[in-house]
Amino acid sequence: MEAFYTLKSFQNKIDSLGKDNSIAFVPTMGALHKGHLSLIKKAKKENDVVVVSIFVNPTQFDNKDDLKNYPITLENDLKLLKKVNCDLVLIPKVKEIYPTKITSEHFEFGGIENEMEGKFRKGHFNGVGTIVKRLFEIVKPHKAYFGEKDFQQLQIIKKLVEIEKLPIKVIGCKIFREKDGLAMSSRNARLTTKCRDAAPFIYKILKKVKKKFKKKDFMDSEEISAIEKWVEKKLKKQSDLTLEYFTIANESTLKNSSDNQHNPRAFIAAFAGEIRLIDNIAL
Ligand code: AMP
Fold it and tell me: Could you tell me if 271 and 199 are in contact, meaning their C-beta atoms sit under 8 angstroms apart?
C-alpha cells in the first residue's frame, strides 16, 4: 500500500498505471470502521486497483462544532487499510483541494438535494458535490463505491455523474451494522455510554416499520402518514433520543411516498445527545 499526501505525487502514480487497470475509488473522511472496510473489500474484489481518500471536507459541514470535533485517527486508518490490502491512499491537504477559498460550487440535482438531509443541513450537498467532483477529477476512477448508510448522498452522487457526464459507475453498498443493529458511523465513537445504549432503538423502530409494511398489500398516503406519526410518538418516549425527521419516501425521487407500491424506503435522523445519527431501511 502506498500513501500520498500531495496531489502531484498521487497524480504521477495514477498516470503511471496502465490503461488496462480498472480503478476503484472509495472516498472517506477517515476514522475508519468496518462499514468503510466493507466498501473497500467489495471494491477490491471487483477491480485491479483500489484508491481510498481520507479527507474531512470542510464545505459539507453545516455545523462548525461537528467539523471541529470530527474524529481523526490517521495512524489507525492506515493500519486498517493495509490489512484489507488497499492499494493507494490519498490524504490531501485542505489547501490543495481548496487553493483560494474554502467554498462550494452550487449544484442542482433535480430536487433530491432539497429533501431530508437537504432541509436540515443547509449547503451540505453542495459541499458533497464539490468535493466528490474534485476527487473524481483527481482519481479518474472507473467505479466509485458509496454506502447506503448515506442513501441520499448515494443518489446525489449518481445524479452528479449523470449531470457532469462522467464515465464512472457508482455502486451502492449495504449498510454495515453493529451486533445490536446500530449503523456503524465514525460519529458513534463520540456517543456517551448512555446515548450508545439508546442508539440501537433507531434501527429497531425502522425494522418495526418494515414489519408493518409487510403485513399490507396496499397502503395509501393516510396510512403512511399514520406510521410516520406513530414513529414520532415512539421517539418522544425515548429520553436519550431526539427525532429530527422520520419519513417514508420513494427511493428515487426521495419525495414523501403517497403509497407503498413504488420502492418505498424509511429514513430517519435523530440526535443521541449531541451526536446526530442517520439510518434508513428498504421497505
Ligand atoms: P464517511 O467517512 O462517513 O464520509 O463515509 C465514507 C463512505 O463510507 C460513504 O460512502 C458512507 O456511506 C460509507 N459508510 C459509512 N458508514 C457505513 C456503514 N455503516 N455501512 C456502509 N457504508 C458506510
Answer: no
- Locate 121 and state its grid cell: 443541513
Pairing of strands 169-173, 241-250: unpaired
**Would you say how long the chain is, in residues?**
283
HEC per residue, 104-167: CCCCCCCCHHHCCHHHHCCCHHHHHHHHHHHHHHHHCCCEEEEEHHHHHHHHHHHHHHHHCCCC
Do 206 and 268 touch, CB atoms closer than 8 A? yes
Whether residue 36 contacts residue 28, with contact meaning beta carbons closer than 8 Å, is answered with: yes
Angle at 152 between CA 263 and CA 206, to 5 degrees: 60
Is the alpha carbon torsion for 230, 231, 235, 236 positive or negative? negative
Q: What is the pLDDT of residue 47?
A: 98
Q: How many CB atoms lie within 10 A of CB 110?
A: 13
pLDDT (0 to 100) of residue 143: 98
Whether the CB of 152 sits within 6 Å of ligand 1: no
Residue 36 catalytic? Answer: yes
By alpha-carbon position, which residue is closest to atom 17 of ligand 1?
Answer: 35
pLDDT above 90 for 262: no
Provide the 10 A C-beta neighbour count for residue 99.
8
